[in-house]
Predict the structure of Gliding motility-associated ABC transporter permease subunit GldF.
Amino acid sequence: MLAILRKEFNSFLNSPVAYVVMGVFLVATGLFVWVFPDSSVLDYGFADLQTLFNMAPWIFLFLIPALTMRTFAEEKKAGTIELLLTRPLTDGQIIGGKYLACLLLALLALLPTLLYYYSVYQLGNPPGNIDSAATVGSYLGLGLLAAVFSAIGIFASAITRDQIIAFLVAVVGCFLVYSGFDSLASVFDGAPAYYIGQLGIAAHYRDISKGLIDSRDLLYFLSLIAGLLLATRLVLQSRNW
């Protein structure tokens, strides 16, 4: 699995895809956090990074599928998937290596945003007047969100040989899981609205972003990731049916 991880990660770094994705993410979040007057921290007057954590999921919704769309679809189109599957590797190792490479690159894009935290920390009055617990929770939530989106993207790439179709399926899947259940919950009232909302990512992401790290939220994310990776494994195993 580590060999697949290194191969995939190096192939990303040797192509412009990784740098375009990271550049677009940083430019987009930077504009929303520091430049656009409706969302700028400087105009908002409060020392927090809520703008970053509100906008990053929507940017990830498009950028992570752009990373994952080639993982299996390109192998199928080039005819190298059969060669890969005949290597002394299990399906789980292949999926795990490709999945971790995409997730690692997404997390790498998040790393420079720590400069935003440092800047807001220093700009606070007095310096350090920022809710660090909520910030740590929000970064954890973004990491888990990136993990789910990567799993959706890997699954979408496994079911087709066309990268564009894989991208579109992943974007729609990420949107439905992140925002679809919230939209559906708004149609109902009371308990049904609550339980429908809990099926989506947004409710759990909001809870973690408050700095309240609940085992139920972690279990939700981990179960969703495991389910998607298992579905990807079933897709690959279908070649033997």
